Amino acid sequence: MHETVKLLKDLIGFKTENPPGDEYKVINYVKKFFSKNKIKFKVYSKVKGRNNIIGYIGQGKPELLVSCHADTVPVGTGWKTNPFKGVVKNSRVYGRGACDNKGQLACLLYAAKELKKNESELNGTFLVGILADEEKGSQLGLKYLINAKKIKPNFAILPDIGESMKSIDIAEKGILRLQMSAKGKAAHGSRPQDGENAIVHLSQAIGKLEGYLLKHKKHRLFSKPTINIGTVQGGDAPNMVPSLAICELDIRYLPSQNTSKIIKELLAVVNNKKINLKKVIDIPPTELKDMNLVNQIQKTVKRVLGFKPKPIGLDGGTDAKALLMKGIPAIGYSCGEHSQMHVPNESIKIKELEQFSKVLIEIVKDVLN
Ligand SMILES: [Zn+2]
């Protein structure tokens, strides 16, 4: 059995559902692993129990960070095996976190151990990150470490995208969250003609936005922009005409768009004076400009695995976005299938664990060459 399988089975055994996280369980295990393999490390935590650990291999600049997260999404229902027991079946390992992100984490630990053996050959430092809180936005994990300057990597690889090593995430859509509200006029429910129904205004607006495609220029890396109507609230009682109704929109947009234009465009589509749009969150699209890291990874993967992964843009946002916004070149690249993330009976192919741990070692060597 490949050592990553054993590591993964151990990691699945630690319950690190977020919430509450409890990443310290995995971090304590990694501490022992690092000590046993004589890898230097530091533990950082913003909140007790929500630990992060960084292993240091090699020395000096540049510093390459490869980090996985120790937390998982909650188990949910629909499991055929115990989600906290790594089960080997059909050449795969099953369990919560197998594909997101403990499988990749097992590969990272294995790579760290192997690279430690010849660390003097590295020209720079390999930062081995096992981090907290990714599933809830990384405020206690990567974002904390970067903002508090606990780590200052020159570039980073985040093995957390699925895609079976065939794609490299180099760009991510912008995330715009809007609150759409409708104002009406309250009245007694027995006399609706005296009022003005905010829910009716809002639902007409929603109807117009459903399936609407925002104006945009086609982008070589991205699919089209999207609008999701995620929540809706309105009304206090059946016998009252509602004076207020609110929904929330999640818009994923492209570099050719900008948020004030998007808001104007949506107001024109809705075409109703009773509707108001308010910006709640706006995180711009990001795209890696410096392609050195990508070119190197493509070369290494081609040599080791025989195929060339292709750069892609993601619909969703990952921690790479946070790093890119700080000016740190960061990409997403990993084993595992996207369809296995956040689902019951989560699993990963053992073959992919083997391939990824092998190629990761070579990538680190080539980048820190
Ligand atoms: Zn993940």
Overview of this structure, please?
This protein has helices spanning 3-12, 24-36, 102-117, 142-147, 198-209, 259-270, 292-305, 319-325, 350-367; strands at residues 40-45, 51-58, 63-69, 87-89, 92-94, 125-131, 155-158, 167-172, 174-183, 187-188, 226-234, 240-241, 244-253, 275-283, 286-287, 310-314, 330-332, 347-349. By secondary structure, it is of the alpha+beta class. The chain has two domains: 3-172 and 286-367, Zn peptidases (Aminopeptidase, 3-Layer(aba) Sandwich), CATH 3.40.630.10; 174-283, Alpha-Beta Plaits, CATH 3.30.70.360. The chain has a six-stranded mixed β-sheet with strand order 1-2-6-3-7-17, with helices on both faces. Helix 3 crosses helix 9 (350-367). The longest helix has 18 residues, at 350-367. The radius of gyration is 24 Å and the shape is elongated. 45% of the residues are buried. Residues 69, 100-101, 134, 160 line the site of zinc ion (ZN).
